[in-house]
Amino acid sequence: MLYSTDYEKCNVELPIAIQESIRDIMELFGMDAIDVLKVNDFIISIPLLIEVNLPSKGTHGNIDIRQFEPILISFNINSYPNTAPRVKSDRKDFPSSSLSHLYAVTNGEPPTLCLVRENLDEWFANRRISDLLFVAKQWFSKAANGLLTEDADEFEPVRLEGYKGYSIYSHLKLYNYISENKRHSSEIPFCFLLNSTKLKSLANPSFKLINFDITPVNLTKLFKLIKDLNLKFIEDKDNNDVDLPLFSLLVWSNKTEPNGAYSTSLPKTFGELEAFAQQYNISIKEPIAEYIKNGLSINNLTTYMSAV
Hints:
The chain has helices spanning 16-29, 120-124, 129-145, 171-179, 219-235, 270-279, 285-293, 301-307; strands at residues 8-9, 37-38, 43-51, 68-76, 86-89, 102-104, 112-113, 159-160, 166-168, 190-198, 206-209, 243-251.
């Protein structure tokens, strides 16, 4: 099954830059005609088959990478060529859970290849569509040979696209919370954290971890202090460049090995978040119940936005 079968043919006149790139693709593949599909009002996709150099003795770990892989080249009608095309797998059975270097996408959307470690739009600025397709072929070849991960099989971060907001934290700090078992409750593996964000950045917030340990002993006094600060900031409409302190949760599992595989389908709803956490033997019900019981939700962004 292919994603491209779900799309209609595009019948609108495309920008000249996209028309030129389509001609380049046709020349590169020796094609007289090419399908242009409408994904939505902003995105068009071109389905192609690219040939992959497979290892002679079979793919690494018997992963399902094929000699001819169906792909989609997706263009943003409004921003190309300032925005690079995205290369996606057209296969609904693509083995995303066994591969790194994929962007996180909405459930049901085609897996999107992370082709370069730098910013793809900046990389594409002085290159052609043929360069992009060459790197895409290399990506599939590396996947077939088990060479996508370059950092000695260490953790590869998931690349996000189409998401707003950032969390800035020290990986070592969070690791220490978990490894030293700094849980808020003896029964449940979780702890409260303290973050901050700028009031004026709510459209695209950045949450910075504050280096402060919250314990059952200091939580009550800390909550009152932060509540009073937030109320003061909200009332002062002219002071929108302050750091708004917020409570958050760090939740982990008691088990060493998770059940879930590598995932690029990140949750969008609470139900999806709950199911996502369960894949990794993490329960978020009890920590969130504690968060609400302690009144910490009064300091979240939803409360702030409804207040103004």
